[in-house]
Structure formats: structure tokens, C-alpha cells
Amino acid sequence: MLSVENLKKTYDTGDEALKGVSMEVSGDEVVAIIGPSGAGKSTFIRCINQLTEPTAGSVELDGVDLTRLSTGDLRNQRRNMGMIFQEYGLVDRLTVMENVLSGRLGYVSAWNAFRRNFPPEDVRHARATLDRVGLAGYDDNRADELSGGQRQRVGIARAVVQRPKILLVDEPTSSLDPESSRAVMDLLTEIAREENIPVLINIHEVELALDYADRVVGFADGLVVFEGDPDEVDGDVRDTIYRGGEPKSDESAHGEPAGDRPADDSDRAVPGTDGEDDRSVARRTDV
Question: Which pTM was predicted?
């Protein structure tokens, strides 16, 4: 089980990306995090696996507090967290199989990793996983030869071969067309059920969240402002998450078109909330 308590992140600029977020995720549930840009959704995901270092709070996975681990122990614990990135996180010059097997880097020596020498069982599992995500026969294709949907499937396969205890997913559909988006969400929910692991997804598309998630968590200005079942997300809840409780209208109280009003603090992104973490490690392949 993942248990997050009072997680905070303040950047050197003074921007507070997270202001005390608590959450639990367990079983095979799919939990979707929704909210406006700059709400802290991506920062939260990255603080869980310590790609971004939180300022305060705890992150426990099966009772182990990740925020208190040494570098070596953290590397070992990251094997239990499959990370699926918004921009896929693939190495373009490597083959599909090599990218998928990078999910096993935490289990082999540095010398074998350098030589890309993996146990036969890992190779068999990787090939079976590619078949499972609809990419059978793509083993030797370079990653840069694939479509966006195919690249995201490679990212999912890489996370699955880790045999993780949880999948952390950051904006998996933001670069995909509607059909590919639903195919990816189908795959993620299927994996949650079959592998009996939870999936925590940061997602902008509210309707996809409502269609696929077991639970929805709404972020606004670095805080959790809603948590409940998808069928509870009505107009009032959306107003709370996206407009600070103000109902949606075409004109403001001053007669200005809503789209022309200056953005408030909740509309402005802060460092690390839109895909980059504060230590620039998103391009790591040992996720």
C-alpha cells in the first residue's frame, strides 16, 4: 500500500507546489488525479518516487518511508514503482526491446547493464509483455520509428517488466489522439486488475478519469480539494477544483469575458509541475 502523509514541496523560488497532501492507494484500484495546470499534480507523482525531493512529509510504500532512505536503498525501492512518463521517457536510438528491458536495470549489475546483458527469463518476460500491449514483432524497431501511441505502450511495457508494487503515471494521454488515449487507459486498467497492483494517474482529460478511475482526487493550488467516486464529480465539484468554487460563467462579475481575466495564482504553473522535476532526472531510464 502507498501511504502519503502531509507531503509538501517548496521550491527555491518560494513557490509552494504542494501544501500538505495526504493520500492512500492500495489493492488494484485506479486513482485519477485531476486539476488545473500548476495545481501540483506532476510534482506529487514525482515526489512519490523521489525524482523530486519533497520539502516535508512522508511517502511510505508497504511500510518503508522513501523519504528517509539512502541513495542505494532508494534505488532498490524504485524497482517497486513503475513510472510511466508524459513524454514516454524512451531512448530513441535504442530498440523497443532494449527500452523495455531498461525496466530491469535495477536487477542486474552495472557491468551487465552496460553490456545490455539480461537473464533469459527477463527477455522472455519482456517479449511476452510486448505481445500483451499489442507490440508483438516490434522487438528490433528503433523507438523513434514508432507512433505516439506505440511509444506510450513501450513505456507501459517497460514499467510492467519491473514487476512493480504500484504504477505511477504522469499524463499518459496528453500527446495522443482520442482513440489511442482510450486504448492506453484500457491497457492501464487491465494491468491493474490482472497484476493486482494500484495505478495512480495524473490526467488532464476529466472524462477519461471519470470513465476509467475507481476514485478521483482533485488538486487545486497544491492541496487536495476533492476525493471521491467518479459519479460524485458534478458541476459543483468541478467548480471547486478548477475555479476555486466559483461557478463557470461567460462573464465575470465586472462584465469582463471570463477568458480575458488575469490568471490568479492557481492558474500559474510552478517549476516541476508540468513534466520537469527540480533535479532534471526525468530522462533517467532506471525507473
Answer: 0.81
69 vs 216: CA distance, rounded Å: 30
- Residues 218 and 35 sit within 8 Å (Cβ to Cβ): yes
The confidence band for 109, taking pLDDT boundaries of 50, 70 and 90, is confident
Geometric angle at alpha carbon 90, from 142 and 152, rounded to 5°: 90
pLDDT digits (tens, 9 = 90+) for 6-45: 999 999 999 999 999 999 999 999 999 999 999 999 999 9
Specify the number of domains making up the chain.
Answer: 1
Strand pairing class (64-65; 56-61): antiparallel
Cα separation of 66 and 63, whole Å?
A: 9
List the CATH number of the domain containing 89: 3.40.50.300
